Amino acid sequence: MSKNKREKHLEDKIKELEEQISHTSDALNETRAQKMIECFWCLKRTRVNKLTYIQTVWYQEPYGCTGGDYWLNGEGQFDCPKCGENNRLYERPDIVALKKYFKEVVKKHD
């Protein structure tokens, strides 16, 4: 194979592999979005992409001469659509890791 043909062949192979990675990544994201989460209270399960992730945030007041004010993220939560109870995710890091797959993320200011 000449150098130009070899380069073309390798570029085509890279493009093919990138398409496979993209397809596999999409499939993995869909699988994660379809994952079922169990409610702590009623033990019923709901798909991640059907739930709203509630991100608690709180205000840190300014301090001293140079300390500015800012907002901090607290724990994640979700309300069970079946029983209406609020589920705290403080001890559930596996579910917090799925945050981007929830139907939506809303902020709750404390």
Can you describe this structure?
The chain has 110 residues and is an alpha+beta fold. It folds into two domains: 1-33; 36-109, no CATH class. It has two helices and six strands; from the N terminus they run H-E-E-E-E-E-H-E. The protein has a four-stranded mixed sheet, with no helix packed on it. The chain has a two-stranded antiparallel sheet with strand order 1-2. The longest helix is centred in the N-terminal third of the chain and has 31 residues, at 3-33. The radius of gyration is 22 Å and the shape is flat. The model has no long low-confidence stretch (mean pLDDT 94).
Count of discrete domains = 2
Evaluate the radius of gyration: 22 Å
Query: How would a crystallographer describe the biggest sheet?
Result: 4 strands, mixed
Number of strands: 6
Point out poorly predicted stretches.
Answer: none
| Fraction of residues in helix | 25-40%
Task: Give the helices and strands, then pairings.
Layout: H1 3-33, E1 36-38, E2 45-47, E3 52-60, E4 70-79, E5 86-88, H2 93-96, E6 104-109
Parallel strand pairs: 3-6
Antiparallel strand pairs: 1-2, 3-4, 4-5
Features:
single chain, 110 residues, two-stranded antiparallel sheet, alpha+beta, 6 strands
Please outline what is shown here.
With 110 residues, this protein is an alpha+beta fold.
